[in-house]
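DM from R.C. (forwarded with permission)

"hey, sorry to bug you on a friday — could you get me a structure for this? deadline for the figure draft is monday and I only need the backbone to look sensible"
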Amino acid sequence: MAVIETPRLYLRELVLDDKKDLMKVLSDEDSMRYYPHPFSEEEVENWIRWNIDNYQTYKHGLWAVIRKEDEQFLGDCGITMQCIDNEWVPEIGFHIIKQYCNYGYATEAAAACLDYAFDVCKYKEVFSYTSDRNLASQQVATKLGMEFYKNIEKNGEKQIVQKISKGCFPC
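My reply, with the result:
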């Protein structure tokens, strides 16, 4: 059942049966180069369980990204609560299987999640953070209208935090 729909995609809740598909991104060394390490099978399963818990607790989490035309699983995207400088804030994140990168799927899914964050969840601000080396993710956030907010350190690495406030969408 779709939680969010876009012209090319729909986002639905992750289920444990998505583990094999989600491993294609979360266990891939290249895709996870900005994380401490690629995820093991157990870590991917725990990731899915964490998101299932988030759906119950927050009414959002990272959702499965599915291409409508052929039901292809592309990765995950959604809203999670993250601690940034001792404050819990909504953050948009995504992981797209590398063979589906550079087709605009991350931007399309993240833009729909941003609308959901403002319109359904009624958040006043939404954040994104990533390694300062992850220029592709920073570019997606910029396309959403997010602007530099601050630098933080997480897992021993410098992170760029970007944010957008309700009503600040790009023209």
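R.C.: lifesaver. Strands lie at 2-5, 9-13, 62-67, 72-84, 87-96, 125-131, 147-154, 157-165.
me: no worries. The helical segments are 19-26, 41-58, 105-119, 135-143.
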